From TrEMBL, chain A:
Catalytic activity reported: (sulfur carrier)-H + L-cysteine = (sulfur carrier)-SH + L-alanine
GO BP of this protein: amino acid metabolic process
Molecular function GO terms recorded: cysteine desulfurase activity; iron-sulfur cluster binding; metal ion binding; pyridoxal phosphate binding
Name of the protein: Cysteine desulfurase
Enzymatic class: transferase
Cofactor(s), names only, from the UniProt record: pyridoxal 5'-phosphate
Aminotransferase class V domain mapped to chain residues: 10-372
Species of provenance: Imhoffiella purpurea
UniProtKB/TrEMBL annotation, chain B:
Protein name in the entry: Nitrogen fixation protein NifU
Record-stated family: Belongs to the NifU family.
Keyword Lyase in annotation: no
Domain (NIF system FeS cluster assembly NifU C-terminal): residue spans on this chain: 221-284
Source organism of this protein record: Imhoffiella purpurea
Taxonomic path: Bacteria, Pseudomonadati, Pseudomonadota, Gammaproteobacteria, Chromatiales
């Protein structure tokens, strides 16, 4: 949907995707025209490109703290990396028919697991508590020699909640089980040092850290048993065939370098912006609360539930003011269910539908935060006026009883 | 984000008749548990004439739920209860210049709230008989419950049959995996297994026809079209035969049918009916698809 607001937009939807950093654009552009060669070619058109990819690989390696640059495999996106990791583990260990994951993963993992269940695999979905946290004792009990792979996200895309993946990877290693983490939301926002961890595989996606869409990485620890998803040419040492997306690889390298430089900024300034936004909104809007684990989450994410109203309606009104955010409501996703993450945490329907995610980046400013703090309360009030659960200054008494519709 | 019409946006941003009617004498509360939307409709009905004097809504729901509620109240004000009951969810969608297929259930909710309010006014009990599942086919807005029930009651076993009975899967074909899954599930209930065939899904052709004169053939095609027209007219549309050229039957879709997404359903539907009637394969095409020279000179 488009709006003619005339105001400069405020982009608070960086967990969905990010703006490509102008320096990144500048770094990648020559690879469409001057440096268009195929890195595999035996002439100077290709040679320079090969060197550029090598540099990019080292930049990614640096951000991830990987031991070897050959552990970095470029893919087409986070989803491809996730699929490659999980399917590889199953193919390489045909006797192991179980997978451990969580109920709050991104569809890139969940939809694949649901599909694998139909093919006869057993998938254990770890549940979460009201703050989106896992029970590691339950996890420990599931780690048997039947499990081919554990796939647990580093940071949740909706709430920003961080999972203890370092600890979980150690536990998996002790049990002799492969460990993969979908770190699409974590890379660039939290410091990562893979060489000192027990993580075997990790997925990242360029467009979440100011690189373009359509480029991803699978980190693959040396000596991890692996079966490629795409076979063909020898690109990426035969682990991901297909001519390299050179411009985007160069871009991702640059983006990783910049993420490294801005890591402190992300951890301090962006966190302050987020905290101020959250505190400002919660103070001004009654019957609203933060979802997820406020003490242990990404520095850029605030997910706030506004009770008794619906998220898509909130987004449309915010959009009218040029403010971009996301919602866990059913109606924004095209499915009929509110977000599986909110349901997993046991958030009641009347609140789950009104969850709104504000996700910031290093491009946001305190002035923008203050504008959003001003904008939200009247929007919430306006929609509550329409809500059958609301009357005057608060929810109707015993809202679930006063309004108990006949459900279709 | 959704492609909302100007009209939907306008009714969302400035909803009409929002809030409860103060001295209402009819209330209808409905909700859709699956999508969490809920709606309360309050009416002030003239006890003498049964004319709806005032209508107000309160909605817990998305943009289209609010717009649909607003549209509904505008449509029914001034109507008698009986007239209002004739309002279909398609009428609500039309009033808003259309809703995305995923959002049609929002207009259904509006109509159900109205039925519930009328039942409430008349002291009857309103029971909802409509169950809604997840949307499977986006091209034709068909949900899983409808597909399941159709498979069960007609003992369907193939995707082709599901296309023929429900239209689901008859467009871009992206939903065929989902349809296969539903088929497998329903067949499993009775101990059967779904046997997919590798060949692509196509409408099965009937046995070869008995020979017919051209005139007979033309009459038969006209008869089929005549029999379909009342259905289309009910949806504010119409169809007209333009030309028959060998296996190609050219028609003009009119009114609400023209250009609407459902046109292809209707075209396909018409094609199937003609194929059944003639016992031979024909293609029903919009007249715009006629070869240029013929359109220019013919
Ligand atoms: C946690 C997580 N995993 C995977 C993905 C998918 O990444 P991509 O869009 O690059 O396939 C996303 C993006 O939305 C994500 O947030
Ligand atoms: S989604 Fe069903 S045919 Fe296109």
């Amino acid at each position: 949907m488009s709006t003619d607001t005339g105001i400069q937009g405020i982009y608070f939807d960086n967990n969905a995707t990010t703006m490509v950093d102008p320096e990144v654009v500048e770094a990648m552009l020559p690879f469409f025209t001057e440096q268009f060669g195929n890195p595999s070619s035996m002439h100077l058109f290709g040679n320079k490109v090969g060197l550029a990819i090598k540099k990019a690989r080292a930049q990614v390696q640096e951000l991830l703290g990987a031991e070897h640059d050959s552990e970095i495999v470029f893919t087409s996106c986070g989803t491809e990396s996730d699929s490659t990791a999980i399917l590889s583990a199953l193919k390489a260990q045909p006797d192991r028919k179980e997978i451990i994951t969580t109920v709050v993963e991104h569809p890139a993992v969940l939809a694949l697991c649901e599909h694998l269940e139909k093919e006869g695999y057993k998938v254990h979905y770890l549940e979460v508590d009201g703050k989106g946290r896992l029970d590691l004792d339950v996890y420990r009990g599931l780690l048997t020699d039947q499990v081919a792979i554990v796939s647990v996200m580093w940071a949740n895309n909706e709430t920003g909640t961080l999972f203890p993946v370092l600890e979980m990877a150690e536990m998996a290693r002790e049990a002799g089980v492969l460990f993969h983490t979908d770190a699409v939301q974590a890379v660039g926002k939290v410091p990562i040092d893979l060489k000192s961890s027990a993580i075997d595989m990790l997925s990242l996606s360029g467009h979440k850290l100011h690189a373009p869409k359509g480029i991803g990485v699978l980190y693959l620890r040396r000596n991890t048993r692996f079966r490629p998803l795409l076979r063909g040419g020898h690109q990426e040492r035969g682990r991901r065939a297909g001519t390299e997306n050179t411009a985007s690889i160069v871009a991702l390298g640059k983006a990783c370098e910049l993420a490294m430089e801005h890591m402190r900024h992300e951890q301090t300034i962006v966190r302050q912006l987020r905290d101020r936004l959250e505190q400002g909104i919660l103070e001004a809007v009654p019957y609203s609360f933060v979802t997820g684990d406020p003490d242990n989450r990404l520095p850029n994410t605030a997910n706030i539930a506004f009770e008794y109203i619906e998220g898509e309606a909130i987004l449309l009104l915010l959009n009218k003011l040029g403010i971009a955010a996301s919602s866990g409501s059913a109606c924004t996703s095209g499915s009929l269910e509110p977000s599986h993450v909110m349901r997993a945490m046991g958030i009641p329907y009347t609140a789950a539908h009104g969850t709104t995610r504000f996700s910031l980046s290093r491009y946001n400013t305190m002035a923008e935060v203050e504008r959003v703090i001003q904008a939200v309360p009247p929007i919430v009030a306006q929609l509550r006026k329409l809500s059958p659960y609301w009357s005057g200054q608060g929810p109707v008494e015993e809202p679930e009883k006063a309004f108990a519709p006949a459900y279709a | 984000m959704w492609e909302y019409s100007e009209k939907v946006q306008e009714h969302f941003f400035s909803p009409r008749n929002a809030g409860a009617v103060a001295d209402a004498n009819a209330t209808g509360d409905v909700g859709s548990l699956s999508c969490g939307d809920a709606l309360r409709l309050t009416l002030k009905v003239d006890p003498e004439t049964e004319v709806i004097l005032e209508a107000g809504f309160q909605t817990f729901g998305c943009g289209s739920a609010i717009a649909s509620s607003s549209a509904l109240t505008e449509i029914i004000k001034g109507k008698t209860l009986d007239e209002a009951l004739k309002v279909t969810n398609q009428d609500i969608a039309d009033y808003l210049d259309g809703l995305p297929p995923e959002k049609m259930h929002c207009s259904v909710m509006g109509r159900e709230a109205l039925q519930a309010a009328v039942a409430n006014y008349r002291g009857e009990e309103w029971k909802d008989d409509h169950e809604e599942g997840a949307l499977v086919c986006k091209c034709f807005a068909v949900d899983s419950v409808l597909i399941e029930e159709t498979i069960r009651s007609n003992k369907l076993t193939t995707v082709e049959e599901v296309v023929n009975y429900t239209k689901a899967g008859g467009g871009c074909s992206a939903c065929h995996e989902g349809i296969e899954e539903i088929l497998a599930g329903v067949l499993a209930e009775s101990g059967q297994t779904f046997a997919p065939s590798a060949k692509s899904v196509a409408v099965a052709m009937p046995t070869p026809p008995a020979k017919m004169t051209n005139l007979q053939r033309m009459h038969r095609i006209e008869t089929v079209l005549e029999s379909i027209r009342p259905t289309l007219q009910r949806d504010h549309g119409d169809v007209e035969l333009v030309d028959i050229d060998g296996k190609n039957v050219y028609v003009d879709m009119k009114g609400a049918c023209a250009g609407c997404q459902m046109a292809s359903v209707t075209l396909e539907g018409i094609q199937e009916r003609i194929i059944d009637e003639l016992g031979e394969f024909v293609r029903v095409l919009p007249s715009q698809a006629m070869p240029r020279a013929e359109r220019a000179y013919g």
